[in-house]
Write a structure and sequence with these properties.
This protein is an all-alpha fold. It contains 16 helices and 2 strands.
Length: 256
């Protein structure tokens, strides 16, 4: 829904986000949509990519295995704190998200019980923490091979998590839905086969905690100026435009 791929109409995608947010207790769908799109636009850019760990995470967690274990357990809280640290004014749909989710939380307590709401909250906490499915948060951009910024996961977990592991493919073509992303992988094997990829989410968590090279600091970070320079100077050549462009007069004369 964040990429408007569930329905053609943007409004229906917004409403879908609100609905699937209900079991998560905390209103996050519209903020996730906002910050996820910014992550695509400013990947790795210091101060603009909300997916980057905070300086305090890097300073206090670093490569301590015990603290990294606690960090993984509390990753859901870290995710929210990073968004708050951006200090951006909530947008209209974020306010709607808050009102709708809080109202439904009250309805759950009113017509079910506080234990029902607590069950959902605890489920979200563990589901975003020390859980194999949550390993994709680490798998995606924490550096496991020098020179590679983004990583895919090709394992059985994709069956249950809507192919969320195919992250290189997703960043290359964010408008391809999860139902067709594996088709892209098969078409473009020459581009994705050479890249390092994960095959176990449990292995990702273990390596992240056990390796002294891993931690919140294991991210590629660039300045905004470098980001702009890259977008300006490193563009894929448009061969079609070159082939259809009119020849210069001196070239025509020379060929004559």
């Amino acid at each position: 829904a964040g990429h408007n791929l569930v329905f053609k109409m943007g409004l229906l995608n917004r409403l879908t986000g609100l609905m699937v947010n209900l079991p998560m207790v905390v209103p996050i769908s519209q903020s996730f949509r906002r910050y996820h799109l910014e992550h695509h636009q400013f990947q790795g850019v210091e101060g603009k990519d909300p997916d980057l760990p905070l300086d305090s995470e890097v300073k206090y967690i670093h490569n301590n295995p015990i603290l990294k274990t606690l960090w993984v357990f509390c990753y859901s809280a870290m995710y929210v704190l990073r968004g708050l640290a951006m200090k951006k004014t909530p947008q209209r749909w974020e306010l709607i998200n808050w009102a709708f989710t809080v109202f439904m939380d009250v309805m759950i307590v009113r017509y079910m019980s506080i234990r029902s709401l607590a069950y959902l909250a605890v489920s979200v906490f563990f589901g975003y923490g020390m859980h194999p499915g949550a390993a994709h948060f680490i798998q995606e951009h924490y550096i496991f091979r020098d020179g590679q910024e983004t990583y895919s996961y090709y394992g059985s977990g994709n069956i249950f998590y809507l192919n969320i592991g195919l992250h290189n493919e997703h960043h290359d073509f964010p408008q391809i839905p999860w139902t067709r992303i594996y088709k892209l992988r098969r078409i473009a094997t020459e581009f994705y086969d050479p890249l390092y990829a994960h095959t176990s989410w449990i292995g990702v968590i273990f390596l992240f905690i056990a390796s002294p090279m891993q931690g919140p600091q294991a991210r590629l970070v660039r300045k905004y100026k470098a980001h702009l320079s890259g977008r300006r100077e490193y563009k894929v050549p448009d061969d079609r435009a070159k082939s259809t462009a009119p020849k210069r007069r001196d070239s025509v004369i020379a060929s004559a």
